[in-house]
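Priority: medium. Attachment 1 of 2:
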């Protein structure tokens, strides 16, 4: 693909076409499995205490030393580990994000990519044929996925608060719709002590959300309201409504109603903040958004896999009655932040 998302022919190499892009994509699971297996075996947690030999790590994680050495060297090739002589140590990014129990750890997210998401992607060809996703494993899977994504959503809101030109000090009431754990509301409530926040989602997620609320000691300012998030809270007079990665997982026909309910939940002059994998008109950029669309398809089926483009979302917001629509691409895995006001 070129910068406009149009297909270009294979690049010639010494008069011959180059299959390298095919090989890189086809073998991409080699790298992901190397990382996911190292996380599953707690390699990065074991090495957090300092450099160790393959034999020492193998003893701690109960693995075959020769097999583990191959896994460690592969993660060195990927940049997650470094080898000096016979000893291995974590890279800085591994120490920060791949150690169990550390603040902001992505361990749960990496594990979620293997189970349940990897199994869903294995059935992608059948889902494309039929439009139907494999039978969901139920609430247990939804809760595991919600826990896995929490730290990533929290980190996204931290960057949004740093980058966007929003005068948060003028706000007091937040409504967080459909985020399951309320990561965005918790981030803003921790950052701005005047905020009072409501997390609205299905009752399934209440124990998990309250676990995070309690762990951050925000019980006095953040509460969970069990209700369908698409309904919002019309008449709630909120200063800020958050819609984090919620719209792209809904059927196209439902989006206008969700935005209307969000609008009616705001006070006059209030703001809606949407964070989404929004596509350009090419529908192939950003790359992460195009692949996230496939992830939605694999997880929920074709009813929830429509391409949500920047222009389309802009029109949805304007048609609903929002004004001052602004979109900012974040330097975070192809995510776009969208703000709009209630006139």
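Attachment 2 of 2:
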């Amino acid at each position: 693909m070129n910068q406009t998302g149009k297909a270009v022919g294979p690049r010639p190499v010494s008069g011959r076409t180059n299959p390298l892009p095919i090989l890189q994509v086809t073998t991409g699971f080699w790298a992901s499995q190397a990382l996911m297996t190292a996380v599953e075996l707690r390699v990065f947690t074991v090495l957090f205490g300092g450099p160790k030999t393959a034999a020492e790590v193998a003893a701690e994680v109960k693995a075959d030393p020769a097999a583990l050495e191959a896994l460690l060297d592969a993660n060195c090739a990927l940049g997650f580990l470094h080898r000096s002589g016979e000893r291995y140590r974590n890279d800085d990014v591994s120490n920060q994000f791949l150690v169990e129990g550390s603040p902001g750890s992505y361990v749960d997210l990496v594990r979620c990519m293997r189970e349940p998401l990897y199994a869903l992607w294995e059935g992608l060809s059948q889902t494309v044929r039929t439009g139907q996703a494999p039978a969901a494993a139920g609430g247990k899977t939804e809760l595991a996925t919600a826990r896995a994504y929490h730290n990533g959503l929290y980190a996204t809101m931290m960057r949004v608060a740093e980058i966007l030109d929003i005068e948060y000090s003028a706000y007091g009431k937040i409504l967080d719709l459909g985020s399951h754990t309320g990561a965005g509301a918790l981030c803003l409530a921790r950052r701005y002590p005047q905020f009072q926040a409501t997390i609205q989602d299905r009752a399934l997620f209440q124990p998990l959300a309250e676990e995070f609320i309690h762990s951050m000691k925000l019980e006095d300012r953040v509460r969970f309201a069990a209700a369908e998030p698409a309904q919002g809270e019309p008449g709630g007079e909120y200063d800020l409504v958050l819609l984090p990665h919620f719209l792209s997982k809904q059927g196209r026909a439902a989006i206008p109603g969700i935005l209307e309910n969000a609008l009616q939940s705001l006070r006059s002059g209030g703001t809606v903040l949407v964070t989404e994998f929004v596509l350009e008109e090419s529908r192939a950029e950003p790359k992460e958004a195009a692949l996230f669309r496939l992830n939605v398809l694999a997880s929920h089926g074709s009813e929830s896999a429509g391409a949500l483009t920047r222009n389309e979302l802009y029109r949805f917001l304007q048609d609903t009655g929002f004004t001052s629509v602004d979109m900012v691409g974040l330097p975070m895995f192809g995510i776009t932040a969208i703000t709009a006001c209630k006139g």
